[in-house]
Amino acid sequence: MKIILATIALHFFIFSTNSCLSWAAGAADQPVLDTDGDKVLANVQYYILSAIRGAGGGGLDLGSPEDKLCPKFVVQDPFENGTPVLFHPVNTSDPVVHEFTDVNIEFAPGLDAYCRSSTVWKLDDYDSSSGKWWITTDGDKGNPGPQTLTNWFKIRKSGGFGYTLGFCPTVCESCVTLCNYINKFPDGKNTRLALNKKPEGSPWVFVKASEKHSK
Ligand SMILES: *[C@@H]1O[C@H](CO)[C@@H](O)[C@H](O)[C@H]1NC(C)=O
């Protein structure tokens, strides 16, 4: 694990000095807002939808290619809202999700019965065939520290409309980690989330799942 993380850090340090600073600094812990202008709350279900409507729209979902069914990874469903997520802030007594703050993100099923895996987001190991660090599931929730580094994500306002996601965990003071924006990339028939070498990420909005159902 230590070796893997060291490799991650070395590989990305070259590209990501700027994006790292922008994720780590600031510490402006503004609450993240949903599409109604309400604070995004811990343990409440939200769809993560593209801030771009029409082509390129759609929500985040669990997906898999034909040749590697488990664990499922994070895809964008181009036509539907996808699967709602729950946010779990690193500070478990904080009911509100804040910008620049570590959160676990979990697809609401909680457990993928077919794969027998968790639906908590996780940064996968480096995929040398695609040159990507994909976001997958079967992560661990809570227990901030070196052993859970790959399970923490951050949210910040995008340059335009909506929010972008990033990976820049600060759950371990002595750990060297990478910091990168998360963007969507094509992978076969899927559109998947992965770290971006460039300091830019796809813009998303958060829509209360209960409202969406009742509309
Ligand atoms: C955690 O959240 C609670 C509630 O917002 C707050 O009072 C407390 O100061 C936070 N703890 C830390 C370590 O930030």
UniProtKB/TrEMBL annotation:
<dbReference type="GO" id="GO:0004866">
    <property type="term" value="F:endopeptidase inhibitor activity"/>
</dbReference>
<feature type="signal peptide">
    <location>
        <begin position="1"/>
        <end position="19"/>
    </location>
</feature>
<dbReference type="InterPro" id="IPR002160">
    <property type="entry name" value="Prot_inh_Kunz-lg"/>
</dbReference>
<dbReference type="Pfam" id="PF00197">
    <property type="entry name" value="Kunitz_legume"/>
</dbReference>
<keyword id="KW-0732">Signal</keyword>
<comment type="similarity">
    <text>Belongs to the protease inhibitor I3 (leguminous Kunitz-type inhibitor) family.</text>
</comment>
<protein>
    <submittedName>
        <fullName>ARABIDOPSIS THALIANA KUNITZ TRYPSIN INHIBITOR 5</fullName>
    </submittedName>
</protein>
<dbReference type="InterPro" id="IPR011065">
    <property type="entry name" value="Kunitz_inhibitor_STI-like_sf"/>
</dbReference>
